[in-house]
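Inverse folding, one chain.
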């Protein structure tokens, strides 16, 4: 395999993991079964998620954090910002939380470690923009 081919495969791996991540965060309207499947597709069974507002582990914990975000921001969707950037088994990516009117009052970036199967093992999240409360 050439160096270019290796880089392309890595880039695809990061993009695929991030796409599954956003599918999980946006599956709230898919019902419990759809949301559970999206979380399982994106995260390992023992995955951890830590940001300034949450610290959880496992599929049930992740699903609860995601449901809580959607309860706080009904009708909002998570959207990627830019292109994921990664090396080895680590990927970082920006995101924003978009309101039904198109505004994006919340934004941040996450750093995730990937398992061998491409699912996410850990997430460390950072908030760059939050609404005044």
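Residues assigned per position:
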């Amino acid at each position: 395999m050439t160096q270019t081919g290796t880089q392309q495969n890595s880039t695809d791996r990061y993009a695929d993991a991030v796409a599954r991540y956003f599918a999980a965060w946006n599956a709230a309207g898919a019902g419990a079964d759809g949301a559970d499947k999206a979380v399982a597709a994106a995260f390992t069974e023992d995955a951890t998620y830590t940001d300034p507002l949450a610290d959880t582990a496992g599929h049930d914990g992740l699903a609860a954090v995601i449901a809580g975000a959607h309860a706080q921001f009904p009708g909002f969707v998570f959207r990627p910002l830019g292109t994921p950037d990664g090396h080895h088994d680590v990927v970082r990516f920006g995101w924003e939380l978009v309101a039904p009117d198109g505004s994006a009052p919340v934004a941040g970036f996450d750093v995730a470690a990937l398992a061998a199967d491409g699912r996410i093992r850990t997430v460390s999240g950072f908030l760059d923009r939050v609404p005044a409360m």
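The first strand starts at residue 43 and ends at 51. The two ends are 52 Å apart (CA to CA).
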